Amino acid sequence: METGKDSTAATPAANAGLRGVVAAQSKIGDVNGEQGILIYQGYDIHDLAAHSNFEEVVYLLWNERMPNQAELDALCAEFRAHYAIPAEIVEMMKAFPKDADPMDVLRTTTSALAFFDKESAHKTDRESAVKASIKLTAQFPALVAAWERIRQGKDIVAPLADQSIAYNFMYQLKGETPDAEEVHMMDVCLILHADHELNASTFATRVASGTLADVYGAVVAGIATLAGPLHGGANTAVMKMLLEIGEVENVDAWLENALATKRKIMGIGHAVYKTEDPRATNLRRFSKRMAEKTGITKWYEMSEKIEKEMLEKKGMHPNVDFYSASAYYLMGIPTDQYTPIFAVSRISGWTGHILEQYANNKLIRPRAEYIGARDLKYVPISER
User: Fold this and answer.
1) 102 exposed, middle or buried (CB, 10 Å; 0-12, 13-18, 19+)?
2) Which domain holds residue 221?
3) Are residue 224 and residue 285 in the same domain, yes or no?
């Protein structure tokens, strides 16, 4: 059932994939595709990546401004109070098939978390929605890390209450004190992936929250959308591509064949950016640094070569997925966990948009251009 006035009047045909169609007003983020600029609440992504941290950026996305120290400390304390996931969720995860896709696990466990949030589940007022957002942002890293441990037959690792989201994620994932430089890189990666205006998964969360579905339901819609290979799955596909190519000397022949057969080069090109994705600028540096640090340089060298040739041959630039793949790989993160890591970050942007939608809500109900048959008459089944 839909509420509100409707009309059968003809509507203009939309661009395929709604390219260029403005579907909402938002203060959260803005993408300037022509100039390669990404901002969160007025702050340039390069400035945030260089100076901020993920928790501070979460506050910014939710509150339209940077926090003072007391406000940041209070938010961090809230996160740390909710790092641990319910024991019932852990037991449920242990019963999952060990080959379950990590995004399926994240989607299912996120939905189940609502059972254990009597305080804010099924509520859409700002106070309740913020509480749910805090819990989900705090627990996403633990869910992703717990599944990695469980499927390997290892004990899950309890979070450290005095550490950041990025630190705890790396610690719980690997079960050992993480490398400080890698924690910093992960923290910046979480900043870079936090929001990207009305991307597919964020739009899904706004559509869901526009019906006054609660935060948990809207976030599940976002996870389901992010799981698609044309959205969040692209960074995993980039690493699979690099593994398929194998060696730097194979790049030329592989790329020539791929272009001849019209194969999509994963991580290259973007629906909005016509120049370099500003997030790729930072991630290129991380990929190079991890290559230097580990002594395994071929993944970065292959990526660099593909980037150069695609720019020369097609005028196409790398996007956020291209260099994050090799950086994560050299951090020892399994390839099928790349998209869940995306969600660990994007939960901040999703919830920011959900809060914004609730604050000035109108049911999102676009029209479709009907291109089917008309004036058909029913024929009894015996005569067909």
Assistant:
1) buried
2) 29-229+341-359
3) no
